[in-house]
Amino acid sequence: MAYVAAPLLVQPEEIGLDDVPVEAFRDALAEAVNAEGLGIMRWQPQPVPAQTLFQEMRGYGRGCPWSCGHAAAGHGYRPEEYPVAEEICRRRLVLGQSFSSLGPPNDERTMLMFAEVFHKVLVEERDALISLARRMA
What we know:
By secondary structure, the chain is mainly alpha-helical. The chain is built from five helices and three strands, in the order E-H-E-H-H-E-H-H. Strands 1-3-2 form a three-stranded antiparallel sheet. It is elongated and about 60 Å long.
C-alpha cells in the first residue's frame, strides 16, 4: 500500500439505521475505532469552494488569480453549487494517523487490523455503537 489517505463514506442508512443522523453515526464510528487504537478522522469537512481562500478570494500575492485578470469578472464560489461534494464531506472519514497518510506501517497486517476493528465495532458491538450515535445526535 502507498502512503496515501484511505477515505471511506459513512452510510448508516445502508445498514438499516435510517433514524440515526449521518453526522452522529460518523462521529460515533470515529470515536469507537480510535478507542480501539486505530487512527480514523474527519478530513476536509467542507468542499474546496467553501473554504476561506476561495470565499475571500485572497489568493497569493495581491489576490491573484482573482485580482490580476485570470478569473472572470464577478466570479464567485457558491458551495451550494456543489451538493455532491458537500455530501461527501459530510460522510467521509479517513483511515490513518495523520492528515497525509496512514503512515508506516501500512501493510497487509495494518489493513487486517482495520478489518478486525470494523467488524468488532460494526457487528460485535453494534448496539453500543448505535447507542453512542444516538447520544451524540
